[in-house]
Structure formats: C-alpha cells, structure tokens
Write a structure and sequence with these properties.
Distance between the termini: 63 Å
CATH class of the largest domain: Alpha Beta
Oligomer: single chain
CATH topology of the largest domain: Rossmann fold
Shape: globular
Order of helices and strands: HHHHHHHHHEHEEEHEHEHEEHHEHEEEE
Radius of gyration: 23 Å
Number of helices: 16
Bound molecules: S-adenosylmethionine
CATH architecture of the largest domain: 3-Layer(aba) Sandwich
Largest sheet: 9 strands, mixed
Number of strands: 13
C-alpha cells in the first residue's frame, strides 16, 4: 500500500520541520489519486490530534513512547489515527500495511507494532468515549487535539460554550473555495470544472467565489494557468474584499505583509485604477507574489519590495494600508495543524509585539483620512483586540470604522474589531479591524 509508505515519509519530513502540505506535494507525484488521499488523510488526522494518539498508544505500551525507534513511533501514531478516524478503510489491511513498512527497516519492532495497533483497534475507541463524556477542560483539550495552555486561554476568552465550538473546529476537515477572476462567470466555471469531474457550487456570500468538496485542487486543473481562479478561503476573501470596497476613489494601497500575493491579487483584480505597493520580508514570497500577479495579468499595477515593513519606505503616501499581519495562524489550525504544536505562550507574545509595531508603523505612514485594514488569522485576543487597544491608546487621532458584514458570520471583538468564526469547512478563523486616521 503505497499511501501508507508515503504517509510515513511525509511524517518523517514534518518531524524535521517541513510543512505537511509541502511534504505531501513532494511525495504525491507518483501516487494514484486514491493513495494520495489515503496518505493525506493519515498525516492530517495524525497531526490534528497528535496528543490524543500518543495518549492512547502509551496506555498500550510497556516502555516509554519516547524511547521507541522514530519509524516505529511514527507507524504507531499514523496507524492509531488511521484506525480510529478512517471509517471507510478495512482496518486489518491498514495494520498489515504498517507492519510491512516497519518490517523493511526495523524487523525487531514488527511484533510490537502489530500488538499495539491491534489493541488500539479493539480498545482505543473506549478512551475516546471516556474523554467525550468528561467536562474536564484538559480532557477536552486532549480529545480535540489542543495544547492544554491553548485550551485554557480560549476557555477564559470565549467562555465554555464557544470555546468548545472552537475546539471542535480544529478537527473539521477543510474544503477548498476559490475566487474567480472577473473574466469568467460562476456558471461557466462550474461547468468547466464539471467537465473534468469536479463538482462546485456558488458560495452563499460572494458572487465570484465557488465552493468544492476537494481538499486541494492541483494547479494543473482547468483554468488555473490562465488566471481564471485562485484558491482562497472565504474568510480571506472577506478581508481583501473590505480593502476593495474601501478603495473606491483611492489610488495607492500599501499591502504591508503581502506574502505570496493572494489578497494583493484579489484587490488588483477587483479594482481598476488602483496601484498596490506590496511588501514582504521574505524574498521568496515576493518572487512568488510577482509570479502570482503575472498569472492574473495584473502585475503592471503593482510595486514589489522585499524587506522589513518596519523600515521600508513607500514610493508615495498610501490612501489605504492592508496589514495582514504575521500571526500564530490559530484560526487555520485545521488546515495547518502542525502550527499548534510549535506555538508557545512566549512565541505568541512575540507575535503580539511585532503586530503592535507593524500597526503603529501602518498608522504613521498614513495621512489624515487614510485607512488601515488590520487582520490576522488568529483566535487569540493577544494578537487582535489587545494589539488594536494598545495602539489606539497611543494614537488618539485614530478611530475604528464599523463593518456591515451583512449575513457573513462575524462576531464583534471585545471591544474592537470583528472575528470571522471558523464555522464551515470553507471558513478559517480571522480577525479584522478597520481604522481611520482623522
Ligand atoms: C499572514 S501572512 C500574509 C499573507 C498574504 N497577505 C496573503 O494573503 O497571501 C504574513 C506575512 O508577513 C510577512 N512578514 C513577517 N514579518 C514581516 C516584517 N517585519 N515585514 C514585512 N513582512 C513580514 C511574512 O513573511 C508573511 O508572508
């Protein structure tokens, strides 16, 4: 079973620091669609609830989990996640596939892997049921795959009921939505995708966004190279749409943390006379951003600079600054689950400091009447309301502008900004606050 071997190789790469999505791309070129899906489901299920699988495995081991040979530990984690989460797969075949994979490199551990995975199959579900019936916060953190300190912090911020919803959203499998270029209608794109076997349907929130039940559409799919569609979650579209709506009559937008240019591309596609100056600290991302805008045929209305946004200088005073700030990414942990195991409260405080500095700089760059669209894909107040609050204290000339989100699932921040709740597979958690310099 090639999918199991690929999952083990991808997992090993991620232990060395590579993102799952990147490792999956590297290893899936030779796999059939079915094997690729198996590898992807195994690694993402394993990563989303990593601490739960370790807890279950430990209860069936007679030696410390940490003392296992790395491949043996990996086979147990992936096997445990697969056996307890993949309902449609024949469990015995999965156990055999992991046993075979271990036999090649670590024959002495074959008996152990076989025995533990069989115990998982027979009794692992009982531990999950036990945790489900517990009200204890640490049990809930274990059940939904969250570091305990994160669970505690979210419970304090959101209260028990909302925090529980947020915990559950961590394990919801995300689906892909994609933004359409103004050159193609939703109906036409739906029919073009259907011709290659992909079912899609319009988003209830945007006339130019389609939803699909796919986890990742390969760029080779119809229309991508022509710039007809761009993968973008609906939350992210909502953020860049605010910049589009506010840019009416404005000439220069500064995208202070443009990354690979997903929001930059959206703004340029949906405006006519706007110029976007796009900055990012990473040269690679700036190059990727240029390629992205070239694909969308809007590169000529952009100016790219690689460097630190705290010190770069714009060509002209911007009318609007989009600050899509670097953050913990905690609103996207179902999509990038490795992020939650790498974050610490110290790192969170570091993000918060950088966000405050970047927001102060954004305000300094504006003239009177200028606007800042501040956003993060984080559900921590430390990166959101607390950043805005502190910056507003030192800038009395700045006020918040309220948003009319219509039917979009927005929740008012306390007291600043709005959260986009990760309430569906097309929606990541985001925070957004619009400020104006008087
Ligand atoms: C949330 S991502 C931006 C995503 C992008 N707006 C998009 O929609 O594709 C934040 C970006 O900030 C960049 N960054 C981090 N620190 C920075 C700094 N001091 N100056 C400029 N960019 C920075 C990171 O490289 C990262 O690409």
């Amino acid at each position: 079973m090639k999918g199991v071997e690929a999952a083990l190789a991808i997992w090993e790469e991620s232990r060395r620091g590579m993102f799952l999505s990147q490792a999956l791309r590297n290893y899936s070129t030779d796999l059939s669609e079915g094997e690729r899906r198996l590898a992807s489901t195994l690694v993402y299920s394993a990563m989303r609830r990593y601490s739960l699988w370790v807890d279950i495995i430990k209860s069936f081991l007679h030696r410390p989990f940490e003392s296992l040979f790395p491949l043996t530990g990996d086979a147990l984690i992936l096997g445990c996640a697969g056996l307890l989460e993949i309902k449609h797969f024949f469990p015995q075949a999965l156990v055999n596939a992991f046993v075979e994979a271990v036999k090649k490199k670590r024959p002495n551990d074959v008996g152990l892997v076989n025995a533990v995975l069989r115990r998982v199959l027979a009794d692992g579900g009982r531990r999950i049921e036990e945790l489900k019936s517990s009200q204890n916060l640490l049990d809930q953190a274990l059940l939904w795959g969250l570091p305990p300190w994160v669970a505690r912090r979210w419970a304090e911020t959101w209260g028990q009921e909302l925090a529980k919803k947020l915990f559950v959203s961590q394990v919801v499998k995300p689906y892909l939505s994609f933004r359409l270029s103004p050159d193609i209608s939703a109906e036409e794109m739906v029919s073009r995708l259907l011709k290659v076997g992909i079912r899609s349907w319009p988003s209830p929130y945007f006339s130019y966004v389609l939803r699909s039940a796919s986890f990742g559409l390969p760029p080779s799919i119809v229309g991508y190279d022509e710039g007809l569609w761009t993968p973008q979650t609906e939350s992210s579209v909502f953020i860049s749409e605010q910049a589009v709506l506010l840019s009416a009559g404005k000439r220069l937008i500064l995208d202070m943390c443009a990354g690979r240019g997903i929001k930059t591309g959206h703004i340029l596609e949906r405006t006519q006379n706007t110029i976007v100056e796009a900055w990012d600290i990473s040269k690679n991302k700036v190059n990727a951003g240029r390629r992205e805008l070239k694909r969308l045929s809007v590169l000529e209305r952009s100016i790219w600079k690689a460097g630190d946004s705290l010190s770069l200088v714009p060509d002209a005073i911007p009318d609007l600054v989009l600050l899509d700030a670097p953050c913990s990414g905690s609103g996207t942990w179902n999509r990038h689950p490795e992020g939650k195991w790498k974050l610490s409260s110290g790192k969170l405080a570091g993000y918060s400091r950088l966000q405050k500095d970047l927001l102060k700089r954004a305000i300094d760059l504006l003239a009177s009447g200028g606007i800042v669209v501040y956003s993060t894909c984080s559900m921590f107040r430390e990166e959101n309301e607390m950043v805005v609050g502190e910056v507003l204290c030192s800038a009395p000339e700045v006020i918040e502008i309220e948003i009319d989100g219509k039917s979009f699932p927005l929740q008012r921040g306390r007291p600043f900004g709005y959260y986009i709740w990760p309430s569906s597979p097309w929606m990541d958690g985001f925070f957004l606050c619009i400020l104006m310099k008087r």
